Every structure is written in structure tokens, then in C-alpha cells.
Amino acid sequence: MLLGVGSAGPTHLPPPASVRFAAFSDFDETYLAHAATSEQRSHLTALEHFLLDARERHQLLFGWVTGSSLASVQKKMERCGARVLPHFVASSLGTELTFFRNGFPEPDPQWQEQLEESGFSKAKVERIVERLAGNGVTLFPQNNGNSTEFMENYYFRSLGDQRRDAEALDRVRVLAKEEGLGLNISRCNPATGDPADCYDVDFTPPTCGKRNVVQHICNRFGVDPQHTFAFGDSGNDLEMLRAVRHGTLVGNCTPEARANFPRVSEHDYAQAILTSFRHHLGH
Questions:
Q1: Do 128 and 100 belong to one domain?
Q2: Is residue 161 domain-shared with residue 231, that is, in the same domain?
Q3: Cα–Cα distance between 89 and 217 in angstroms, integer?
Q4: Considering the domain boundaries, does residue 241 fall inside one?
Q5: Strand, helix or coil at 141?
Q6: Are 235 and 211 in contact, with CB atoms under 8 Å apart?
Q7: Could you tell me the CATH number of the domain that includes residue 42?
Q8: Dmax of the chain from CA atoms?
Q9: Active site annotation includes 202
Q10: Same-domain status, 144 and 57
């Protein structure tokens, strides 16, 4: 069963009796280091212990907001030694929002309803890709298994010139807006398995995106915006970091992200998250 808790399965974070703080973390290369050292694994374990205690001590609701699918998250947890499920996972760039009750997945019905009413369709995406090709802008599908009913993933290969890249990607933005679609564009991070010299180009409903996940969770649980945290490592995390009071890039972030956000931790991966929590919430 996907991400269910069994004798050899992960531990889940029980929900806090009431929610005062909410925290949102990117998963790949933020919470989880794909090629973790023994020291980085120990930091992850320390963070997991903190989270298990913080749900009552600090009334903290914690979740992952990731471009990866839920199935991909499960595989990475198993491979990299993560043992604790968060309260929720907003996967596939927020086109899936899943809570865990006693370790078993439950989709958020309000979020699902928003997606179904968004007007998103693969036909609209295909029309955009075709029009772009006619104007000399080529997008190629990622074929990584992350596409969902409400998300289509493509790559755009850099033309080797920032100005030309910007012009081409602006054309993508214009057409996505014309079709009423949400769009995520960020520089690829080879550390997560993406090709070098490419951009992620992800089409979603306009109601998705990491910023909208933050707003939805805070509204649902009545969280004061001053009591919010977010952590990321790349360009597609910046809207989430800007949507909270305490947004932080981990120290291993991409150059693109570092150049566009002022708060960067001195620490990498889980250590950066744990350090921030301890600074603002205490031990």
C-alpha cells in the first residue's frame, strides 16, 4: 500500500491536537539528500526526532511540497533512509494533496474539487507545445513518470544565451496565460536526476503551485501567517519561501535560487531545517 504504515513501514507524525505553526519543505535536495553522507543521515534522524516531538510541544503541522509524485517520494524515502512521514504531502507540484491518518493516505477533498473545476486539460498543453514549436521553441516531455491527471512536465534545453532563453520562456508564459494554465519554470538541478543545461517547464491548473498550497493549508487550519516556515533549494521553491514568514534556502541550494532570495542557511539539507526550527521554536 502506498506510504501505508506496516511492520517495516515508516513512522507517521500524529496530527497535533491544535495547530499553531505550519511548515512546508521541498523534498528532493532540501529535506532529503540523494547522496547523503553518514553525517547528513544523522542530521535527518535528528530532524525526524524533533518533528515527532514538535507536533505537541510546538503545535507544529509539517509537510512536504514537492514536484515529485507520491510514489516517487516513497521510493526515495526507502532508498535514502527517511523514516518519518509528515502530516501531509503536496506532490506533483501541488496537483495532489494527501494527508495521512494513522499512516494511511487520504486526499484532501476540497483541493481535489478545485483541481476538477480548474479547466485544466492535456489538450490545452499539447496546443501550447505545438504553437511554440511553430515559433522555434522546442519543449520535450520528461517521461519520468511524474505527470498526473493535472500536471504535464517538459524540459526546455538552454540555447546557451540567457537573453535568448528568457525570450523563449516568456513565450511559454504568454501562451500558458492565454490558455488559463498554471506554469512552473525553473533551472534543472542535475543532483535530482534532471539533465544539465535544461529548464523544467511544468503545466498545472492555475490553482496549483507551491504558494497556493501554503495558502490553502493556512486557511484550512487557521494558521497565522506570522507562524509559517518554508524551506527549499531551487528556483521553483521561491514562491513558497516568499509566501511564509520564515522562508529559508538550504545551504546546498542552486545558484539560481541563491541569486534570487536573501535568506540562505549556513547549513545544508536537514541540518538547515532543524537549525531554523530550533532558532525560532526552541528545542
A1: no
A2: no
A3: 11
A4: yes
A5: strand
A6: no
A7: 3.40.50.1000
A8: 57
A9: no
A10: no
Q: Look at residue 7 and tell me whether its pLDDT is greater than 50.
A: no
Which strands make up the sheet holding 246-249, listed edge to edge?
104-107, 96-101, 88-91, 60-65, 21-25, 228-232, 246-249
Which domain range does residue 200 map to?
Answer: 119-204
Give the helix/strand (H/E) hosting 153.
Answer: strand 152-157
Residues of the chain with pLDDT > 90, as a percent, come to 77
Among 63, 82, 69, 58, CA closest to 24: 63
Q: Which of 26, 28, 200, 268 is catalytic?
A: 26
Domain match, 30 and 166 both: no
Q: Give the count of beta carbons closer than 10 Å to the beta carbon of residue 206.
A: 17
Single out the residue in 185, 204, 223 at which a domain terminates. Answer: 204
Q: Tell me the three cell numbers of residue 269.
A: 539539507
User: Do 180 and 236 reside in the same domain of the chain?
Assistant: no
How high is the mean pLDDT of the chain? 92
pLDDT at 271 over 50: yes
**Alpha-carbon distance 10 to 241, whole Å?**
28
